[in-house]
Amino acid sequence: MAELLVAEGLRLVEVAPPVLPAVARTAMDREWDKAVLANPALFDGPVAVCAGLSRETPDTLLVSWSRVTYRYFALRRVPGATVQRSLFVSVVQPAEDGRVLVGRMSSATAAPGRWQFPGGSVEPPVGDEPLDEHALRRHAALELAEETGVDLPAAELTRCLVTHGEDGQVGVHYLAPPLPADLLRERFRTLVAADTALGRVPEFDRIALVGSPAELPDLAGPHVAYLEPVVRWAGRRVGS
Question: What is the DSSP pairing of strand 100-105 with strand 158-165?
Answer without folding.
Answer: unpaired
